[in-house]
Design brief:
Layout (H helix, E strand, L loop, with lengths): L1 H24 L12 H24 L2 H34 L14 H23 L7
């Protein structure tokens, strides 16, 4: 289960890189039209990256405290992710309905399949990390 969490975390991170790259390349914080605050975007990224590093160290050290630390980092990552998703939905809907209405927010260009996959893999990662931290799937002592 711990390796599955690593795989889902890496796949989630790859999707996140696509979204972050799209956001930055389309103007992101420079555009003045983005509904995603830069501190939220970069905080989400930084906490997720820190959690992944902690998870890799957990895999090497097998210290239960590290598994719980990684999970603890995932909680604010998930909250920031939900906040960004909630702000992205109206942008996607309003600008999709009226093309050419002026400067579009950078997040308007997010590929929907990447957003969906990023979210689904993120949920799977949180569940797998929690189950690992709880000791589910561990060999009996």
């Amino acid at each position: 289960m711990d390796i599955a969490a690593l795989v889902t975390w890496i796949v989630t991170a790859l999707g996140g890189f696509v979204l972050l790259g799209t956001w930055i390349s389309r103007g992101g914080p420079r555009s003045g039209t983005s509904r995603l605050p830069a501190p939220v975007v970069f905080g989400h990224f930084a906490l997720a990256a820190a959690g992944l590093v902690v998870w890799i160290i957990y895999l090497a050290a097998r210290a239960a405290a590290l598994a719980w630390t990684a999970f603890g980092l995932l909680v604010p990552v998930a909250l920031l992710g939900f906040a960004m998703f909630a702000r992205w939905i109206p942008v996607r809907r309003s600008h999709a309905a009226v093309p050419g209405r002026g400067p579009e927010p950078a997040e308007r260009h997010f590929p929907v399949p990447v957003v969906v996959a990023h979210g689904l893999f993120a949920v799977a990662t949180v569940v797998l990390v929690l189950l690992t931290a709880l000791g589910a799937g561990a060999a009996p002592a």
